[in-house]
Design brief:
The protein has about 325 residues and is mainly β. It is built from 3 helices and 21 strands. The chain has one domain: Tachylectin-2, Chain A. Strand 12 and strand 13 form a beta hairpin. Bound molecules: beta-D-mannopyranose. The site of beta-D-mannopyranose has 9 residues, from strand 6.
């Protein structure tokens, strides 16, 4: 039997070209910390007072996590790490008793405040919680948003008027339902009551993101749509393998996925991505777009131990994405 079409092999090694690892990786390690910790990983990222601010997940030696600020002028090196955590489990909050994890940060344009979504852990399971802040020192905790089991969440910086609705906030999150782990989108008029829940980015059978997907970095606004980096998990004989890909959502209607990479853009390769508490993990959680420099800084947790930085050419990433319509 002859086949008419040649097998569609990927044309180039995009993993190496689209996101390049920073030469001084890892940028933040537990041994850099001003106090005793087990691991420092999965940071949220934003620009604050003209610096890159990372809100780093720090796991202590009981296995509980809290969040601590690290800042840098260029987002690459000379990180200044705060001496104390800024966001940590408090006794009154039943949902946080096993720690708080994996923050994502956006600046809410209307409120002129930063919104931090993070995972609160307790016996009840992981839930997505929200805290608002002006200065990354004082936080107004809003508590859990949706029922467990839920993780990997970020708000968008502004509201959307989708269909006939009045403007509403939108939340990307990753509930686990019937054992399935897809990326979902939900809407709210007030950040408290959520509805219109829908699957946004499902897992894909057979591919690198067949087992689980979850939001990586916070949604990044570009003229062509919301750029989303997400993690995809493949279940293998030696455990879960966490890689990263990207998608682009419609600017005015984020329920519409326009493009999604068929290949991963980042996959565990370096020793610090394999030697840690959970080997074989790259877990993007924050990104900074500098349109003038045509550059994307992508911050990721590596092996649940330290923080890596991958630097991408913004136009190249967009062109690659646009070759992958959904
Ligand atoms: C996910 C999250 C992340 C973690 C990853 C790999 O489920 O809990 O915090 O980095 O697993 O262990």
């Amino acid at each position: 039997m002859s086949t008419e079409k040649p097998y569609n092999l990927p044309s180039e090694n995009r993993e190496e070209t689209l996101l390049r690892r920073y030469e001084k990786n890892p940028i933040l390690r537990p041994e850099d910390w001003p106090y005793e910790v087990n691991s420092t990983f999965n940071p949220g990222a934003c620009i604050f007072q003209d610096k890159v601010l990372l809100l780093v997940r720090v796991e202590d030696r009981r296995g509980f996590s809290h969040l601590t600020v690290a800042t840098s002028d260029n987002g690459r090196d000379n990180w200044v790490i705060e001496k104390e955590p800024c966001l940590f489990p408090e006794d009154y909050a039943h949902e946080e008793q096993w720690g708080i994890e994996d923050p994502r940060i956006v600046f809410l344009e209307e409120e002129k405040r930063y919104a931090v979504t993070y995972v609160s852990f307790s016996k009840g399971g992981p839930v997505v919680s929200l805290a608002l802040t002006d200065d990354f020192k004082h936080f107004e905790k809003k508590g859990g948003l949706l029922p467990p089991e839920d993780k990997d969440a970020s708000l968008f910086p502004r509201k959307f008027k989708v269909g006939s609705s009045s403007p509403r906030y939108a939340l990307i999150h990753r509930p686990i339902i019937r054992g399935e782990a897809h990326i979902w989108l939900s809407f709210s008029p007030d950040l408290q009551h959520w509805g219109d829940h829908q699957i946004l980015i499902p897992t894909r059978g057979g591919l690198w993101d067949q087992h689980r997907v979850g939001l990586g970095a916070q949604p990044i606004e570009t003229p062509e749509g919301w750029l989303i980096f997400y993690h995809g998990v493949r279940a293998t004989a030696s455990g879960n393998l966490y890689r990263a890909g990207a998608a682009l959502l419609d600017l005015e209607d984020p329920t519409r996925v326009l493009y999604r990479t068929s290949e991963w853009l980042l996959s565990p390769k370096e020793p610090f991505e394999w030697l840690g508490d959970v080997p074989g993990v790259v877990f993007p959680s924050g990104a900074i777009l500098n349109e003038e420099k045509n550059e994307i800084l992508l911050y990721y947790g590596a092996a649940d131990k330290c923080v890596g930085l991958a630097i991408g050419d913004y136009q190249e990433i967009m062109e690659n994405l646009k070759a992958n319509p959904v």
